[in-house]
Amino acid sequence: MLFKQSPFISVLTLILIFSVSAWAENHHTKSPSFKSTQLSKQIYMLQGKGGNIALLKGEQGILLIDDDYKVMSEALKKQVAEFGGMDQLTYIINTHWHADHTQGNLTLGTHAQIVAHDNVRKLLSEKQSIKLFNMVSEPYPESALPSITYNQRMTLYFNGEQLNILHYPGGHTDGDSVVFFKKANIVHTGDLFFNGFFPFVDVDHGGNVLTMAANTQIILKQIDDKTQIIPGHGPLAKKADLQAFHDMLVGTAGEVQAMIDEGLKLPTIIKKGLSEKWQPWTKGFLSSEVWIGIVYESLIRKK
Q1: Cβ–Cβ < 8 Å for 293, 270
Q2: What range does the domain containing 145 cover?
Q3: Residue 235: CB partners within 8 Å, gap ≥ 6?
């Protein structure tokens, strides 16, 4: 479990559930659809209900990075039809195992080879749960599991583009992949980057705020000011946005650690709160209270 069960933590869970519901109501239309943004001649960013999707089209077919919730699959199929149709879908890359990035596998997996880190196949093969979201994921059928997996890095040459797929362990989960489009200078970070708001960090499945900060620092060294960044959630970003996200991770973790060093316990730390400068980061689906809890758990487990 992300948090030890207690009446206090139950309150945190209720805060999160309310926050997620309000965020979903404000950010998603009732009729499933995708917003498409062209980033290059061949690459598009699709935004639906779940994680952001990248689409690469060309003579060899269509490649997707992530494929949203199952409820979005029909809308995604319609979107793919605009680029040639499902019979052109060749590859799907899953950046990690969470349902908002992989449930489309259940529908689209019969049309394409699914690529992911070794740990993603393992997790999707088994029943999983995220207590904080009250979410249970049943094992995926074989057709929805990654058929091509890797351990540290792999390269895929497709439609004249070189895709470098790298594993950054222990940040959001233990199976995170970041995909670099070398020629186009575009990168899909998966949920190692939430642009503009506090991220969910899956501590129970190998994630940690400190490692997420370290991983984003590595990515920052691999890109430039012209790089277009597709975050796991949030609007299209530039290097400065990723830098701000990294600084927030380091800054908030530092504040929580300082309170831990004073001997304060989690309830008192949450009551004391973070500096006012981090307030804008609550505009997503996590409140400061829940974020403090995730940071606290990351710091405790890191020790």
Answers
A1: yes
A2: 33-255
A3: 195, 196
Residue 148: inside a domain: yes
CA 151 → CA 117, 177, 190, 208, 302, distances in Å?
A: 6, 10, 17, 20, 23
**Contact between 216 and 254 (Cβ < 8 Å):** no
Q: What ranges in 126-238 are assigned the alpha helix state H?
A: 209-222
- Any domain includes 300: no
On whether residue 169 sits in a domain, the answer given is yes
What are 281's two structure tokens?
A: 């980061």
Rounded Cα distance, 103 and 73, in Å? 8
Q: What is the 3-state secondary structure (H, E, C) of 71-93?
A: HHHHHHHHHHHCCCCHHHEEEEE
Give the mean pLDDT per block of 10 residues along the chain (303 residues).
Answer: 36 45 42 92 98 98 98 97 96 98 97 98 95 89 98 98 97 97 98 98 96 98 98 98 98 98 97 97 95 97 79
CB 71 within 8 A of CB 58: no
Other Cβ atoms closer than 10 A to 113? 14
Name the token pair of 265. 């316990």
Torsion of CA 176, 221, 199, 150, to 10 degrees: 0
Sign of CA dihedral 210, 212, 218, 220: negative
- 44/67 Cα distance (integer angstroms): 13
Specify the number of domains making up the chain.
1
Q: Give the pLDDT score at 31.
A: 63
Q: What is the CATH number of the domain that holds 90?
A: 3.60.15.10
Gap between the Cα atoms of 114 and 110, Å rounded: 9
* C-alpha torsion 181→183→186→189, nearest 10: 20
Sign of CA dihedral 187, 189, 193, 196: positive
CA distance 149 to 147: 6
Residue 5 in domain:
no
